[in-house]
């Protein structure tokens, strides 16, 4: 990968007992653009080594700052669980490499370019035993999509309130800008939805999925859960009262952080 990577570090909170939050701007060779990412370091980072990394993806209409707005305590949690948290700006890409627009390559960006940059510039455990990925809504789709499709990169993946089957929503959230019109590109939609990727899941991938019972994605999450059970694919599944909103995600991310922390500790 070309090393034309430009770095911009902007301290948001500075270093303190709750950790450090920086905004890092990274050049993507595959898209020829600069992309902003929040990097959350645990307190005492300078004295640490071999830290695991959780990649945390935002939802539709969000950006790299969204998770900090939903969960301002993330720096404290990074310190508590001894991990780095990275929140990339995925625009409204659904974290795909678009099959119709060669300028949209967010799967490549996150699974290759971002990972490479973080491992070269931070004190990470640079293998899949030290990497996990999850997110909310569109980012929940992205967390499972990337985790399943890149088993040599991520050892664990998850989704909260995720759009895990996109096909019931052909006119929503700009997906047709990335995949084309559903009626004309049904096969592309079929092959770009999480529930259609289960045959790619490798043994040992740690998976966590949760969704609120009042969420408009609840039915597709229930269906995914049943499919995973049918195929005897181990996973944690949480269903509890809640809607598709910040209140739910503020709570759910704590369960997911605990899950990923346990994964990192046993490897």
Unreliable sequence segments: 1-16
Number of β-strand runs: 9
**Helicity range:** 25-40%
How would you write the strand order of the largest sheet?
1-2-3-5-4-6-7-8-9
Shape: globular
Terminus-to-terminus distance = 29 Å
Count of DSSP-assigned helices: 8
Rg is 17 Å
Largest sheet: 9 strands, mixed
N-to-C SSE string, H for helix and E for strand = EEEEHHEHEHEHHEHEH
User: Could you tell me the strand content as a percent range?
Assistant: 15-25%
Mean pLDDT: 92
Structural class: alpha/beta
Task: Explain what the structure shows.
- It is a single chain.
- This protein has 8 helices and 9 strands.
- By secondary structure, it is α/β, with parallel strands linked by helices.
- Strands 1-2-3-5-4-6-7-8-9 form a 9-stranded mixed sheet, with helices on both faces.
- β1 and β2 form a beta hairpin.
- The longest helix is centred in the last third of the chain and has 21 residues, at 246-266.
- The radius of gyration is 17 Å and the shape is globular.
- The two termini are 29 Å apart.
């Amino acid at each position: 990968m070309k090393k034309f990577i430009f770095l911009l570090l902007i301290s948001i909170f500075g270093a303190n007992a709750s950790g450090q939050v920086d905004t890092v701007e990274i050049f993507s060779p595959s898209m020829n653009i600069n992309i902003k990412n929040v990097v959350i370091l645990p307190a005492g980072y300078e004295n640490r080594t071999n830290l695991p990394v959780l990649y945390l993806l935002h939802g539709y209409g969000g950006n790299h700052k969204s998770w900090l707005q939903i969960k301002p305590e993330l720096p404290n949690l990074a310190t508590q669980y001894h991990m780095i948290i990275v929140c990339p700006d995925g625009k409204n890409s659904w974290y795909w490499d678009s099959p119709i627009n060669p300028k949209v390559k967010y799967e490549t960006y996150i699974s290759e370019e971002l990972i490479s940059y973080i491992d070269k510039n931070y004190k990470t455990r640079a293998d899949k035993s030290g990497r996990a990925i999850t997110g909310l809504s569109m980012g929940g789709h992205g967390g499972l999509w990337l985790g399943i499709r890149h088993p040599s990169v991520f050892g664990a993946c998850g989704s909260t309130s995720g759009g895990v089957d996109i096909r019931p929503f052909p006119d929503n959230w700009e997906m047709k800008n990335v995949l084309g019109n559903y009626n004309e590109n049904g096969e592309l939609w079929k092959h770009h939805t999480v529930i259609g990727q289960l045959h790619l899941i490798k043994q040992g991938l740690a998976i966590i999925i949760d969704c609120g019972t009042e969420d408009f994605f609840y039915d597709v999450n229930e269906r995914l859960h049943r499919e995973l059970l049918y195929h005897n694919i181990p996973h944690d599944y949480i269903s509890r009262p809640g809607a598709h909103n910040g209140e739910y995600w503020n709570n759910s991310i704590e369960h997911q952080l605990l899950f990923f922390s346990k994964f990192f500790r046993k490897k």
